[in-house]
Specification:
The protein has 194 residues and is mainly α. It has a single domain, classed as Orthogonal Bundle (Rna Polymerase Sigma Factor, Chain: A), CATH 1.10.1740.10. The chain is built from nine helices and no strands. It has helices spanning 7-14, 18-40, 43-60, 70-92, 101-104, 122-140, 144-155, 160-167, 171-193.
Length: 194
């Protein structure tokens, strides 16, 4: 069931109605975790930050003015908090090697995060996992802003207009940076396949 974010529902959120907030969390917890995981490359960090995002949304929902969609506003909160977390982690673990999303996404773990569909043949399944790991590795190598735009558009399915709102970039800039991110991703994947 897709939530309809009408004025009545938004009013309930502003009044901190626990049931409305629970519905909002249920609607966005998967997409927000997915975004954070792909940006941070660490499952535990993404889970922790996703919880913090929803606590912040709960505390700040009264500041939502309706100038954008509620989903764009939540993604913006998440992306800003993610940038702050990346800076913090960069300072904290400056000299420590960190696991990437690829290293963490164990191919043998059936519960690991994945984006591929179900494949019935074992050889196709293994090939799909390997391609997924390759794709995730290539995405993790992109710079922060192009990666955010690419993940929002191509993985999350967020509209160009909402991405412009989330990133505070002009629409044309979003489209051109997405194009460059796709080209860079294509080059990275091609290099890994050689």
């Amino acid at each position: 069931m897709k939530l309809i974010f009408d004025k009545r529902f938004l009013r309930k959120l502003s009044n901190r109605d626990p049931r409305a907030f629970e519905l909002l969390v249920r609607e966005f917890q998967g997409p927000i975790f997915n975004l954070l995981f792909r940006m941070l490359g660490n499952r535990e960090e993404a889970e922790d930050l996703a919880q913090e995002v929803f606590v912040t949304v709960f505390k700040k929902i009264h500041t939502f003015r309706g100038e954008s969609s509620i989903s764009a506003w939540i993604y913006r909160v998440a992306s800003n908090m993610c940038k702050n977390r990346q800076k913090y982690l960069g300072r904290r673990y400056h000299n420590r090697p960190s696991k990437t999303a690829i290293e963490e996404n164990n191919i043998d773990d059936p519960n690991s995060f994945r984006t591929t569909g179900r494949i019935s043949r074992p050889d196709e399944l293994l090939e799909g996992y390997q391609m997924e790991k390759l794709l995730q590795q290539a995405i993790s190598e992109l710079e922060e802003e192009p990666r955010l735009i690419l993940v929002l558009r191509d993985i999350q399915g967020v509209s160009y207009e909402d991405i412009a709102t989330i990133t505070a970039l002009p629409l044309g800039t979003v489209k051109s940076r997405l194009h460059r991110a796709r080209m860079s991703l294509k080059e990275k994947i091609s290099a890994h396949l050689r």
